[in-house]
């Protein structure tokens, strides 16, 4: 078991970094989705899109956190310069943001309708949808970041 863990160290660190980034993203989403509707009443349903600014701002917080955790703990430097590496990372993250936003809309509109009680906390359909979108997009992110950006 120890050998398996050592061989999969990068995947484990990616999961930990992704988990920490997800906590930042979900926490900031909860904050933004609570605060922004007080200033922009259409945030909860903007022409059929639910919480667009909250999603974009929270995803940006998660992306920045994930970038720094990725370069510090997960991946070794690739063949690209730091500037190019950052640009590629942001480009992939930008595309991932739209994928995550799309998955969130699908999950929120069609899949998760009820609040889920978890021991001491209740998960709203918004939070469950956000978590599901993050999990789905993270698999794609790992593959692309490992193969293209940090391929050294």
TrEMBL record:
Give the matching Pfam families: GtrA_DPMS_TM
Report how it sits in the membrane: Multi-pass membrane protein
Q: Which GO CC terms are listed, alphabetically?
A: membrane
- Note the superkingdom of the native organism: Bacteria
Q: Does the keyword Transmembrane apply?
A: yes
Q: Which InterPro entries match?
A: GtrA_DPMS_TM
Q: Where in the cell is it found?
A: Membrane
Instruction: Enumerate the transmembrane spans.
Output: 12-36, 56-75, 87-107, 127-144
GO biological process, any:
polysaccharide biosynthetic process
Q: Which residues form the GtrA/DPMS transmembrane domain?
A: 14-150
Main location class: membrane
Keyword set, alphabetical order: Membrane, Transmembrane, Transmembrane helix
Q: What is this protein called?
A: GtrA family protein
Species per Swiss-Prot/TrEMBL record = Chryseobacterium shandongense
